[in-house]
Amino acid sequence: MIIVVTGAAGPTGQAVADHFRAGGHTVIGVDRDEVDLLDREAVQAFAARVEKEHGLVDGVVHLVGGWRGSKSFAETSLDDWDTLHALLIRTLQHVSLAFEPLLRRSANGRFVIVSAQAAQRPTAGGAAYAAAKAAAEAWTLSLADALRDTGSAAVILVIKALVNDAMRAAKPEARFAGFTDVRDLAQAVGGLYDRPAAELNGTRQDLTT
Ligand SMILES: NC(=O)c1ccc[n+]([C@@H]2O[C@H](COP(=O)([O-])OP(=O)(O)OC[C@H]3O[C@@H](n4cnc5c(N)ncnc54)[C@H](OP(=O)(O)O)[C@@H]3O)[C@@H](O)[C@H]2O)c1
Predict the structure, then answer these.
(1) Which superkingdom heads the taxonomic lineage of this protein's source (predicted)?
(2) pLDDT tens-digit series, residues 54-86
(3) Which listed residue, 18, 53, 132, 134, has the most CB atoms within 10 A of its CB?
(4) What is the pTM of this model?
């Protein structure tokens, strides 16, 4: 399969890329050095290059993230909203609009975002983050509707938080209760290919339960 992974240089992206490479698939990893996902023309040009080389994609795993929050609702910074809008919504818009036509051509494609429990259970100081993730989810559900009559599916994976080896090494005493290891996330993304697209399309898969 041809799998595009955005946010590929971080620990999460590396775990997902390793998982698919180990399965013998072609991973096209993107990070800011290669393509600024806030630059729509650059993302379109990137998709055009992938189309020229491969004709289609079988997976887009969108892993760009970020978190901002405040102590209380009243202290919410709308600058934080602008930052999260760019990171969590605008990059998703650019990537999904550019790659949807390529995903439609796959016999069994998947578009995946990783959302947070906070989107459905916002906290007082997390208004900007929760609202941005909820918007990203709604956007992804629209993509799912667009893919309804294809072999592909758009899926929302839901977690509380991620943990990786560097985080464990930095805090050996921490339990990271309820966190999802990036390797387990990668496994879950890979597992989406074992279930029928029609069953998964437009669903939220909670990895914390
Ligand atoms: N971490 C958590 O606890 C948690 C919780 C809930 C949901 N999630 C979601 O899980 C996914 C992975 O999380 P994460 O913490 O591993 O993500 P992350 O480290 O915040 O972001 C992943 C990568 O995205 C890249 N990126 C940011 N802006 C970019 C741009 N304009 N163009 C290209 N690349 C850009 C970053 O590159 P640079 O380093 O160069 O900026 C970074 O390596 C995200 O969608 C996140 O929202 C994470």
Answers:
(1) Bacteria
(2) 999 999 999 999 999 999 999 999 999 999 999
(3) 132
(4) 0.98
